[in-house]
Fold these 4 entries.
Entry 1:
Amino acid sequence: MVFVSVAIDLALDWLFTYSVPAECTGKLRVGQLLRVSFSRREVRGFALRVWTETEEEAAAAAAGRSYAIKPILGIADEAPFFSAAVLQLVKWIAAYTCSPIETCLKAAVPAAVLKPNARPRELLFVEPALSPERVALTKRQQELYDNVARVGGGWMQQLCREFKTTPASLRALAEKGCVTVAVRAKRRDPLAGRAVMPTAPLELNALQRAALETISVADRPVLLHGVTGSGKTEIYLQAIARELEQGRGAIVLVPEIALTPQTVRRFAGRFGDRVAVLHSALSDGERYDEWHRIRTGRARVVVGPRSAVFAPVENLGLVVVDEEHDGSYKQDETPRYNARDVAVMRGRFERCKVVLGSATPSLESWLNAKKGKYALASVPERVAGRSLPEVHLLDLAEETAAYGHVPIFSKFLLDAIAERLKRGEQTILFLNRRGYARICECKECGHAIACPDCSTSYTYHQADDCLRCHVCGGWTRVPTRCPACGAREFSFVGIGTQRAEAALLKCMPHARVLRMDADSTSRKHSHDDILSQFRARKADVLLGTQMIAKGLDFPNVTLVGVLNADASLNMPDFRASERTYQLLAQVSGRAGRAEKPGEVFIQTSQPDAPAVAAAARSDYAGFADAELAGREEDFLPPYSKLALAHFKSQSDEQARGWCALYAAALEKWPGLSVGEPMPSPLERAEGWFRHQLLLRAPKMATIAEAWKWIVAERPAPSGLRVALDVDAISFT
């Protein structure tokens, strides 16, 4: 008898045993999607292990009783959803992140692919017959046949529009044997209607060639440290071309959906239909078709954000993680994996090359390169000998003294923008806060209007004249009276992208301004549409949040302005300085990427802060070495492993009590450092009270073992949600 362990989508971290009927035995393979009976209903699950006898049966026989095991109902899809290497990767993620195996399997396959009714889109295709019968045709039928033959056939709806005919006329030709009409699957193409220009490989300079050779011969992950504008993407393209020549495939990860269309066009321009795209902004049909193109080998190069790391590429030769330092690679729900680390592990399991690219690498990757765990390929110069932009630090303390308030735009920055308008050049302005004003407060008593479900103030959005919570998404109208004192007047404090846009247009009414933030990019293709307009020089200024801070390449941009460099610097997080350096260096790198030199103005109240000063000097190595020295002294990552335990309940007392209970129990675990139980910086979100506990150890295995023990010893009661965020990068 053959048995199979099945993972069902229940998040119990438990595998269920089923027997395999004789008619399925020869077809069953690990990684397949099966139909099984569970709790008197039919469900689907993945086959994770197949064997011929069970410990359960042996125990039942020894006890003198029968042990009934249900048979599987059938195989839902004969082609495995997971290769052996990807299944090994998913199991590693489950163990490393302390997550249920079922949840990890589900995260590795797009939901659109697993829907029971998911299928290809099928339409009627008309094709001229290879040897059409010689039958009498009317003049109109002959003309229609000649047109169909001339274009080689096509989709029925398309031919009807193009030749101003009807389906009945085409079917009449089919009845006479002149054409065939058959149902075919039509690809739902994410790039349909988007211009893709074919490109040829560019001549690499000596530094780029050396980096490419390092990648080609590396026996370990490669950290490609190249300054902004150094041509890292061309290195990726040529490294992938070498893999394709050997019959291998590639995955390219980008941190933001905003970067995906631009990157996909570059890769599709080089590799054509062999490129597939996977990201959450696609329709279900597009995701279904793209995933199956990859699975069947029709697409060999995959581009997408973090979930694309699981793409079912056979014979994988290379995984590229562009902007590897970016926090967007960290999943913020179970399983809380970091796609950068998953890419490295997939490279190990698939025995393929892995490239981590960045102008501002994470300190974890930088230390791995210094220790020799990663190979280092450096490209310290821009292509064609172009210089890095000149950076100016504008002290907002001096501006405040001159104006009597903190200005949105320094006079120096406004003058620089005006100069670019005269010269027909473009400007990028960066402000990492959307909305109009951060706080709506009463002018009389200072009471700030706050979200009732979250411990945060509402943000005022002028576009729709309402107050919005950026945590839960709730909204309300601006009140007519202060709920605290009854006064009628309110002031709007703080600056968001909407307010900055309005202020800029007031200063420069003739400037053409595009705003790019979460509010302006909510509809499909909106990221691409905004960037395409800016690339076509239909706007003078692009103002946006962090989605414009990296990866974008506009030859006519000669000025970058950072409106508030202190926002990330003042976060209660030991990584605040690292993130600030990365953000400033990345956004500065958008200027002067072509023949025209670039200039950067950074508005800050802390011009002497190490991260700000180092970013102005483009001194990554100096900044990283100083930051690493402090981390080592304080036993912080990358010199230790860190995890954050989250406790959420609609009862503050329950969340606080269980956080303290876990802390007291875990303090006794050998080798584990346990922080003080405390409320999260965002104490309440979406109606849930939140507390947290910081865990540190030399190895993640210590944290994982301790966590599995405490969860088993003290399982969370009803109403309490407990989760562990390994390698946490957010402490809010």
Entry 2:
Amino acid sequence: MGGDGTNKKYESAPIIGRQQTREGRVDPPLADGKSGVPSALSDDLYYEIEYESCPIPGVGRFVPRSQKITEPEPDAIRDLFGQMRELGRMHRSGYGFLRTFDGRAHPGSARIFYEQGRFLEDFTDDYMGGVPFSQYYPCYQMMGYEQLRTYFTWRTEIRKGTIREISLSYAFLYIYELLSNIGVTDPEDGLTKLMWFWKAFRVYHTVIDKYVLQWLKAYHIYYELPQSFQEFVKQNGLAEYYPEVVANEDDFQLFSAISKYDIRKSAFFSEDRVTLIADCFSFVLQRLRQICARQEISFDEAIFQPTKMSTWTPFTGALFYPWMEQPDRRVVLSEREIYVCEQNRWMFSTAITTESGRQLVGYIMKQTESALRKAVGYKHRLSADLNVAHLVVERLYEVGYSLETFINTAVLEFYREATKTVVQVDPGALSMIRREALVTQEKLIVSEPEAEDVPEAEREPAEMPEGAENMFSEIERRALAMVLSGEMELKTFSDEHGIMLEVLADGINEKAVDILGDSVLDEEFVLYEEYREQVEEWIR
């Protein structure tokens, strides 16, 4: 309809550049640009159109031409990657590799990564190409064929000892493998490889420092390693990165930080006694741990009772699946950092001991200082009151141990060993002294009439002095009985009864000398076999 309201019939208009026939149709292109003879058409450039078969009048339908399908060349590596991807399709919940609301990788993604990593654990490659890769939380499932081959070729070189620069996402993927112990023999081997890679690759990208440093701590918490994290930090020169851990690298520093009594503020804690006091406390603590273990008490667990626990996830910021069943245990890294695993679940606390625990540690430290002051002859005495309601105190009391006596004995044992005089003898001079002594002995010997040789069976045993069996205390008699039976060493027996080993052995030997004129225990606190019958008589 036109602007004036009249109906108008639209007619076709010619297309510029095309030749029109009288019927209004477009002629095909000219072969020579002049004549009207159509040129040959290429079969590859045109489709066959059928008008009559289309249900809509005037509309044509394309009829695809058949094409020959050729078999692709066999590709074993591509097939292997396909099998790897199938592992991901089995876990639909994590197949999309989503993240949680706090930015962490979805747990399902971590599990897929772990299973795929184990599947390709021993795979090696020698791909000549190389393509970059950039992905947050890098994983195999998100990598293309060329990226996978690039990565595994690079990993093959690493395992041969060669590290070259590559996309950072590839590097993190390799670190994820090590954190999961993929491609290593055991956790110790994994830690060694992680440290080697970190020190070598940080030359190219120092950004990995902040991640690896936090994962090294988590590695020592998650995996039970023979050395403590404190020892690891010290051996590898990492003290500047973990100041809170290094500050408590030994028992003395750690327990001083939580103790109700701070021995470091004592006048006795002078510069020349720091090592002596710290070593003495560690010795006392070692003895306490041993005696508690015999009573089926974990001293450290009894002291470190964490409060306000919160969930701890190993290797935060990494794609990690908690693949290993964890035993129940506690890992104390500092006075305000403890990790507890119960039923394969990890918890974390910043408050690591109760008030009674702090009081008990305070008493142990104060009593240790009191006994050490007495041992060194310090001019001022110190007293410590055991007014603590704690499991350790109650359990030791039930089995007859006095904590005060035990600490005093341990301190004396330590001090005696720490201050003993070591005499070095020249073997050559000693031989000369022996030769001279023999010459002198021969000159002093006076011949005596030979005594009648009486068969040993007819000899009468030496009489035991009257009342000799009553000279030994009950503890000494039990010690001798234990030595005779061989059930345990005298050292173990003395520790269990809170008695210094040397004191117990000296008491037995002194009384044996009064009876026999000789000791019955040697320098190693072992019974002389020739006195076995006499000792058996004493303990009847």
Entry 3:
Amino acid sequence: MKRNVVINILGVIKDAKGRGHKRWHSWRPTISLVSHPDFPVDRMELLYEPEYLRLSKRIMEDVNQVSPATDVNLVETAWRDPWDFADVYAWLHEFAKHYTFDTDNEDYYLNITTGTHVNQICMFLLSEAQLFPAKLVQVSPDFEADQEHKSKGILRIIDLDLSKYDALSQRFFEQSQSGTEFLKAGIQTRDHGFNRIIEEIEQVAIHSRDTILLQGPTGAGKSQLARRIYELKTTRGEVTQSFVSVNCATLVGDGAMSALFGHLKGAFTGAQHARDGYLKQADGGVLFLDEIGELGLDEQAMLLHAIESKEFYPVGADKLIFSDFQLIAGTNQDLHKAIEQGKFREDLLARIDIWNWRLPSLKERMDDFEVNLDFELKQNARVLDRQIRFSQRAKDAYLTYAHSEEASWAANFRDLNASVTRMATLSPSGRIELPTVEREIDRLKNRWQSRSTPKDLELTLFLDSEKIEQIDMFDQLQLSTVIKVCQQSQSLADASRKLYDKSRLKKQSTNDSHRLRVYLQKFGLSYGQIKNRE
């Protein structure tokens, strides 16, 4: 079994009750703490102010008399005023920072019975923030006990399992934050440009239902910001229905129209049941179309009509469907360039470009790197259910590399999230040390170096570098081969026969041209584009 360790502040009034033998007939919180056989205390860290050294020694002797198995360590505090919140919190924070927690072999408890109210509040906050990987314990007098057992009192353990109270705490957290703090997930960002963007978005989110366009590189946080805009509007009563998030890059081929606008039963082969599309599901709420530049031109035309009239036809229907949603669109493309290439409708861009913000990359927001790092640590602590923090040397090394030119942060906050997750997972004690950071830096170097190697010429002819970065190496190699075959073939059908030369023989009826067309559409390409580039 694990050892029980209690961190306890000396009660300068209640622990001092009674003189001589009479003290054993008085309830004293520190003595009460070690008087419960079902809660053996193996070690007590007894925190005392310097002027109460004599009392602390007397209490240590009484603890040893009641519970000889309890080791008592006297710890002199250095706060100047036990009622000064900043002074007490800072001292306890430093104590936690330098204390060696052995969570594999010991369970920790903070006694919030003694000390000033400020002492107790600070200990609660440090436990809630997981700076102390501890549960709270509280003792109180037992007024129904007889005189002989009055000193024992009642003991209660308070387990701060915040997952039980997430919904409630989130509700009050959202109401207490300003709109800008909420949109930033409570992260105290320092980048002036980013803060200015968030301030503007807050005003628009509260006072407007116009379409919002979020631009920026992959991993810059467009999806998270869209959801928080929705949540902010919900708390203000601006919307009452669902948040529907769609990655348009996944809507390819014949199913794209059905996914967006729905279909009737029997509208096409395989449509055995009627289906509401994403636009209908978002009625009364917010529809987030990420990577909107990946939509086909037909879907773009219907989307434009749905935005302007709030009506549209499901596939196979002759009756209009009504849906009143607010659209938030996201893209990492230059949509004006896409218009020049014939890939995006100019009238649709004009309609969705009412409010347009570009989210900067992580590399462009290095002033905010450390606060985002701390945020990721806190998120991982909740997931792993243990305190996560760096040793000072480890954090200094990580920050130095993060700010170097060598660190590309190619996937932006996704890279940061993945990096912190790996280090936290590989630090079971909850403390990330320098060797773990050094291994992670090597891992990041190898990853970014492999990403920065020159791509196949075939891919760079048809896709920009940012789009290529989003494609797995497996798919890059496969797509490159497909492009080569298309370039060397006389027609789409000819290329299809070559590429599906084995599987087509196993089918009685083949439509290989359609298979190839759908495959190329997945990457925004067509056979005609490939041949026209020769």
Entry 4:
Amino acid sequence: MIKTLLLQVKEYKTSSILAPVFVSIEVIFEVLIPLLMSMIIDYGVEQKNIKMILLFGVLMLIASFIGLYAGAQSGKHAAYASSGFAKNIRQAMFQKIQEYSFENIDHYSTAGLVTRMTTDVTNVQNAYQMIIRVCVRAPLMLVSAMFMAFLINGRLALIFLGAVIFLALILFSIVKITMKIFDVAFTKYDALNASVQENVSAIRTVKAFVQEKYETSKFHKASKDIYDIFCKAESYLVFNSPVMQFTMYSILLLLSWIGAKMIVNSQLTTGQLMSLFTYTTNILMSLMMISMIFVMITMSIASMRRIAEVLNEKPTIVNGDHPIMNVQDGSITFDHVYFKYQQSEEDYNLTDIHLEIPSGSTVGVIGATGSGKSTLVSLISRLYDVSLGCVFVGNEDVRKYDLKVLRDQVSVVLQNNVLFSGTIKDNLRWGNENATDEEMVEACKLACADEFICQLEHGYDTYIEQGGTNVSGGQRQRLCIARALLKKPKILILDDSTSAVDTRTDAFIRKAFREQIPDTTKIIIAQRISSVEDADMILVLDDGKINAVGTHDELIKTNEIYRDIVSMQKKGGNLGE
């Protein structure tokens, strides 16, 4: 875990080293100041020697300025290193997530990933800054002040040693308890972020069903869970301060009582006692800092684990050693394919799929919800890998292709049509970043999107809000189809992506596909029979198995499932008239 995270320090190694170096210099000169102060009292004030007062006073001033400069430099380098470290972690996590397959992504919730890249990274950033600065300063100050105390008077220094051992035991006990609590705390943040994200993204639905009160109560519960668990942690951490105060005042009382007796017996000078009081403060402040470090590190360990989990996740779909860099054609073969999402599951989501699709043909896929339609087409572009069997594209196993090459040639328009914030042109160029205006217009005409784009005030420069909320569902689908066409793929998959357009527009899109991209293999998943009835081949899926394959006319005669779907849709159409 630690090794994984430290790999992200990268270009900030120099600042990460300089921060503790300057801290060490700061501590050394800070520890010298009480010693110089005792010399002013013993050799200057008590002996009424102005020269000694001036000499040691100047030395104190120099030590103070050097310590101040070193402290400022350590703070600057610590802030620079910790901020850069956090930046690199976020970038590494984001890049890693981009490499995930759908199977990897299924391990995490969207809200969980957001929490890891925000709250968890911030915790680690704060902990790293404390480690390279405070974590060096506190122990070094503790040891240095303790050394100086023993140098002045070993008998009195034993008081400090006893206090340190006592506080160490108390702090260890508190940290051990709170660490378990913080492990649970950050999973609660996932639930809170999920509530916010779900509510904001579906705010129209919430308002349409007047469920504001329900959503508010759900958020309140998630927020209260975090409140309760942090209150529980704080109920233990709160003992830090009173224990520290008790120890500090106990030491001061003992030091005053024993020290006064030693001064009377000429075993200790006044200056030495004054410096011991200062070292007492240094030691106890160091212990207070160490307790803060323990708390911060305790909180951050849970965050470190969650971040390392994302960074160490191995993508389940990767390129082979010598990937194929060219897709010959759009032919597809499913060779006795079996698939299940979790290998631990007993039942397969797809069972013994055997099918050959010639290049350039149009294939319709029909079936009930949950029959495996989307799962089937996800295997073609390797969004998932088969559990058993093989999927061939262009007469080559899809696992042999370079992923980018394969997915550029197998263009998929998924069920959830996503547009990103930016202009229409920006969204279209996701399909081809170098596409010309003419190519974009041509793709939009094929997808029947050009007609509504031209009616917009700014045309292709119209700004699309995040998620495409300022265009209708049908317009969003047509833009997504145009974006996929800009890839000029050998295989085009439409996963129920014309469901929001009217039947007339749907027919125009299919007609354009037949006439303008005849060499592209087209797979159309649809609920409407009209969307697939003119396909070269229609595949009927039932419970993850191929129930029948044929043309519209053949299936009407031979397949009961297909015949029932046609009959139900005709009845539905008559009822609507």
